[in-house]
Structures are given as C-alpha cells and as structure tokens.
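Quick entry, no commentary yet.
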Amino acid sequence: MLMTLEKPFKVKLRALPPDDQKTVLDAVTDPHNPRHRLKKVKSRRLRKESWSIRILNHKYRAFAQKAGCLYRWYWVGTHEQANGFL
C-alpha cells in the first residue's frame, strides 16, 4: 500500500501530542488493520470519494482520497471535529 501525507494533514498532525502523532502515523501506514475500521465516507461537503479510519479507540479520525493503491491522507482530527468536518 502506498500513501502520501498532504500539507493540511501534516499541519494538523503537528498540533497533536507527540505520542498521538506516532500512533496516527502508524495507523495511516496500515489503514487495513481491522482495528482502524477503514470505510468509505459519504458526504455532501467532500467532492471526491473519501476513506476514513478511526485511531486510538475513536479519539481521532483521518480522511484520505484513494487512487488505485495510493491513499492521500488530507485531514486528521478528533472524532468530534470529524463530525463537523463531514
């Protein structure tokens, strides 16, 4: 699986506590791990089909767009922020 971190994702990632940053990075490099509950996200706000994972027992969510086997991670934040994002 290939992945890239978009600039908005990196900015939000740096705002997280250091231990959580590592956990988030581990999660986005292995989104197919069942504990992350990778799923397609439907939203009127998002222009393209997106994918979501849950991190640290639902403390954080991350969103990516997928092209073939490449995930482009573009957003990460708390679960509450994610609800407002969608």
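second:
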Amino acid sequence: MYVYHYRLFDRYRKPVVSLAVLADLEAAWRPRTYRYLLRLVRRRFGEGVAASSRPGLADIHDPAVLEDLGEILLDCADGAAWLAGLESAGR
C-alpha cells in the first residue's frame, strides 16, 4: 500500500489519501503507529529533528492527533516549527 501511495504522489504531484479497511476479528483494535510520520520528518528536516521528534510521537496514541500532525508537518517551514507544533499537539 505504501508503494502505491508514494508512486501516485511521485507521478501526479498531488496529495494522495490511502484508505485501509480494517477487517480484524477484534473490533476495538486500531493501529497505533507513527513510523510513517517519523520517516517524513526525517526526510524533510533531517535525522536530528527526527530523533528529537521520536519521544513526542511515541506518547501520542490518538489517530486523530497523528493526522493533525501530518497536516502540521506539511505546513512547517523548518524543523523548529515542526518541533513546536509537535509539542503543542502532544499537550
């Protein structure tokens, strides 16, 4: 799914939305991962900012907050702005 996502973005240079249908037997299960977001932070701002982001991202378990952080990441001009946005979202 990740490969299709980034290939579509690379080809059309438009925002892409990926949708996964969770068909797990346990209705309450939800993915709680931030690895993709951390990868984007590393790619955009470098390893130092990604390392500083890791603890804050690990403390966030609400998917809606992670989604909001994705929007913040797109709007940030630099790593300092991203870290400030991450800090305010984690409160």
